[in-house]
Structures are given as C-alpha cells and as structure tokens.
Amino acid sequence: MDIKNLISVILVEPKYQGNIGAVARSMANSGLTDLRIIKTIPDEEAMHRAMHGDYILKNAKIYNTFEEAIKGFDIIAGTSDVSKSGNKFRRVPVSPEYFWDNYGLNGQKVALVFGREDNGLHNSELDKCNFFIKIIGNPEYPVYNLSHAVAIILYEMIVRYYKTNVIEAKDVITSENLNVLMSRIEYLLTLVDYKDFQINILMTMLNKIIGRAQITESEFYKIMGILRQIINRLENKTHE
C-alpha cells in the first residue's frame, strides 16, 4: 500500500501562511504529497516555512469549494473541537490512534480535512465528513494549532505504517541477557588491567547507556560475538 496515493490533506481556507508551510513540512516527513487547499494560495512565507517540503506547496491543488476538494474520497475525516456542545458537531469523534488502527490504513482513499484556524468547519462541511478525529488536550484549552494538529495525526499514521521499522518491546533483550552482556564487558575490562574503582565507574555508566539503547536480541548476539573474539585474543596473548 502506497500511502502517498491514498491519503490526502485538505486545508479549508487557512488564514496563516506559516501554518500552510508547516503542514507541508509535516507531510514531507510523513511521506505524503497530495495537499489540497480551499481558496488560500501559498506565498513565499509558506514556502520558507515548508523547508524541504516546498515541493508539496508547488504541487498543491487549489479549490474554490469544499465539494470540489473532497471529490473522489472513500473516507472524509474531519477534525474539529468536538468538546463543544451544540448542533455543530454531528458525528461521534474517534482518537487518531483508533482511526488509523481501524479505518485509515485499509487501502481506501482518505481525505484528512482541517478547518479554519478561527472558525473550524462549517455545519455544511461537517455534514459531508463520515469521520471525526479528535485530539485529546487540556479540557481548559483543547484546541490545537492547525499545523500541530496535522503533525499529531500524521505521526500516528506513520507509527503504524512504518511499524516494521520500529523496535517492539518484545524484541528488546531480556534482563538475563543484559546481565550476561554486562558481565562480559566487566571481564574484558579486567583483562586490559583496569583498576577495580575504574571498572565500577565504567560499569555504572555503561549500564545506563546500554539500558537506554534498547538493544535487540539479534544485536545482543552480534555484540557477544565481538566480545568473545576480543576476549579470546587477549586470553591467548596472556598465555603466550
């Protein structure tokens, strides 16, 4: 599945050029290319903010109406502050995580629709969305900046799309193997004549570094193989 041919971002009459540019940059980070903007034309400020995502702005499609922009999509996912009450919000919201886990990456054409910075999406536009995505925030101030909202939703997408490249918890070495690795390193330090107090300091430091590294099982066996060869060479040299 090629997400750049299936997932599009639609900005409805954005007011601030900086936001438009930041959205393009987030899209480039996420591997998306199809940006659709209703009425607002990106200018030099947007190009500057887009950084290496400026090619997305150069190829952005500009539409005059909401109906034209959403044409041809299977899923039209609107984002809005559904924490407010009133008839304006006519869909039950789902979280970004739930949306991508269950609907967004099923091979259908998806439009992610983001409303105006000041007024969001109008009732007529909300009625044309078949999903709502809500980002949880501080109840006292739950409204996110446009470009930040786009970045959050796209991040949840790429976590799932590229998950085969992410280290899962089950792949990280066990505490038993971590102890084996640390004992081998400690033994190596004794072979090269480190003093006891030096070894204690280094082992404390290395334990923190290796813990943060989240070494996988396959990496563990490769490192152990390297240590084994070094230790064997040193032991053989000692016996000569």
Automatic annotation (TrEMBL):
Keyword hit for Ubl conjugation: no
UniProt entry keywords in alphabetical sequence: Methyltransferase, S-adenosyl-L-methionine, Transferase
One Pfam family per UniProt: SpoU_methylase
Any single Gene Ontology cellular-component annotation: cytosol
Domain tRNA/rRNA methyltransferase SpoU type residue range list: 8-155
GO biological process: tRNA nucleoside ribose methylation
Record's signal peptide: none
InterPro entries xref list: Alpha/beta_knot_MTases, RNA_MeTrfase_TrmJ/LasT, SpoU_MeTrfase, tRNA_m1G_MTases_N
MF terms in GO: RNA binding; RNA methyltransferase activity
Family from the record: Belongs to the class IV-like SAM-binding methyltransferase superfamily. RNA methyltransferase TrmH family.
Protein name per its UniProtKB record: rRNA methyltransferase
Organism phylogeny: Archaea, Methanobacteriati, Thermoplasmatota, Thermoplasmata, Thermoplasmatales
